[in-house]
Design brief:
With about 170 residues, the protein is mainly α. It has a single domain, classed as dinb family like domain (Four Helix Bundle (Hemerythrin (Met), subunit A)), CATH 1.20.120. It has a two-stranded antiparallel ribbon with strand order 1-2. The longest helix is centred in the C-terminal third of the chain and has 26 residues.
């Protein structure tokens, strides 16, 4: 029997992270071809009060690993935010993909009803059921940051399209 929480999380994270890898590959090729400083894209933003591309990728991967881990009832792996290059971002995505792909689907058996607490013990503490956490919090945040990373690159002239973003399914 297939677990709905597993099938609506892990394959989706894998697909969109794969798409993110592709748009970053195209961005790196773009800066090489156009002889642009990579930081022009890595630090690009859609608006001054938004995170730059580099941070958008970090946060998207944080949501993929954090949501997956919490739903599986395992410890969220720590990944330091030290990336400075496209290669660093690719390595980060590969690390998160390896973690997500390595999660045992059986760990998600009671994920829909498991209580998920974010920022426990702080004024920002939020409590969810696993289902609500995934559908109303985790996936929307993940998609926001992955989409914003794509939009930053597209806005800055990188030849990426919807097929690149969507990835392989």
């Amino acid at each position: 029997m297939t677990n709905a929480i597993y099938t609506t999380s892990i394959p989706v994270f894998k697909q969109i992270l794969g798409g993110l890898q592709e748009v970053l590959r195209k961005a790196e090729a773009h800066v090489l071809e156009k002889k642009i400083d990579p930081n022009a894209l890595l630090q690009a933003r859609l608006f001054p009060d938004m995170f730059p591309l580099l941070r958008q990728v970090q946060v998207a991967t944080d949501f993929a690993k954090g949501v997956s881990a919490r739903l599986a009832g395992v410890e969220v792996p720590k990944v330091e935010d030290t990336e400075q290059t496209f290669s660093d971002l690719q390595a980060r995505i590969a690390t998160v993909l390896a973690f997500v792909e390595g999660l045992d689907p059986g760990k998600f058996a009671d994920a829909a009803t498991r209580e998920i607490v974010t920022q426990a013990g702080t004024p920002k503490e939020k409590r969810f059921t696993g289902e609500s956490y995934l559908l109303n919090y985790g996936l929307p945040h993940f998609f926001f940051h992955a989409t914003t990373a794509y939009a930053i690159l597209r806005h800055n002239g990188v030849a990426v399209g919807k097929k690149d973003y969507i990835g392989t399914y």
